[in-house]
Automatic annotation (TrEMBL):
PANTHER family (UniProt xref): SI:DKEY-77F5.3, TRANSPOSABLE ELEMENT-RELATED
Name used for this protein in its record: Transposase Tc1-like domain-containing protein
One matching Pfam family: DDE_3
Domain (Tc1-like transposase DDE): residue spans on this chain: 79-230
Gene Ontology MF: a single term: DNA binding
BP GO annotations: DNA integration; DNA transposition
Transposase Tc1-like domain ranges (all copies): 1-70
Length: 270
């Protein structure tokens, strides 16, 4: 009964199970429940926070992965990947524990859906390609469409030049409303920028997420004590990320697409 209950609802607590068993006429302690589940290969873990996926998102992700699975590596090397992220000074996110087996941390039942940018202290926009990191800037005000276009105007082409992108390079950004606004699309069209069609709710498909993780680890190790130091350290550490790290992220992109297909469109490890 214990195993069946947590398999059906991984968020069941040990207290819930004690009460359920007591109502069924069996007295069991919490440690016994933990030991029983451990023997079944289940352990209590913090639920991962992932974007909420509707069926339409799952289908769009599968379509993207299947359409691009056989693209040559050279195509991905000619993409400039971009995104925004928030970095907290002393951030601690609340957690929720679930019972799960090894390697099942990203199954939808074991995750907590999130909306992007749920909190933090500074917001950054950055980009990169297989040749290395592009520009990184701090967004000091609440970003709107006009500000986003200004960021692209001042940073996208200089990044492409610095990275020595080949002719016909492709720009990637997600489907944030600021990115997909008519004025932004028109601006990109007038500048003759090719834009990669992107499935919504797919941060795991963007290799820049790995660079954000790399950046946050590097920044945390330096323990900035205020916002000014946080911004300075972010810029310094971003510039130090080796080009080989960027190259390897892009080289393994087909593996990411394969994982999406294997996971039936749901969020994957990458």
């Amino acid at each position: 009964m214990i195993t069946r209950t947590v398999s059906k609802n991984p968020r069941t607590t040990r207290g819930d199970l004690v009460n359920d068993l007591q109502r069924a006429g069996t007295k069991v302690t919490k440690p016994t429940i933990s030991n029983t589940l451990r023997r079944q290969g289940l352990k209590s873990c913090s639920a991962r926070r992932v974007p909420l996926l509707k069926p339409v998102h799952v289908q769009a992700r599968l379509k993207f992965a299947r359409e691009h699975l056989d693209d040559p590596d050279e195509d991905w090397e000619n993409v400039i990947w971009s995104d925004e992220t928030k970095i907290e000074l002393f951030g601690k996110n609340s957690t929720r524990r679930v019972w799960r087996t090894k390697n099942a941390e990203l199954h939808p039942k074991n995750t907590i859906p999130t909306v992007k940018h749920g909190g933090g202290n500074i917001m950054l926009w950055g980009c990169f390609s297989a040749k290395g990191p592009g520009r990184l800037i701090r967004v000091k005000e609440r970003m709107n469409g006009a500000m986003y276009r200004e960021i692209l105007s001042e940073n996208l082409l200089p990044s492409a030049r610095a990275l020595k992108m080949k002719r016909g390079w492709v720009f990637q950004h997600d489907n944030d409303p600021k990115h997909t606004a008519r004025a932004t699309k028109e601006w990109l069209r007038k500048k003759h920028f090719k834009v990669l069609e992107w499935p919504s709710q797919s941060p795991d498909l963007n290799p820049i997420e790995n660079l954000w993780r790399e950046l946050k680890v590097r920044v945390a190790q330096r323990q900035p004590q205020n916002i000014t130091a946080l911004e300075e350290i972010c810029m310094e550490e971003w510039a130090k990320i080796p080009a080989t790290v960027c190259e390897n992220l892009v080289k393994t992109y087909r593996k990411c697409l394969t994982s999406v297909i294997a996971n039936k469109g749901y969020i994957t490890k990458y």
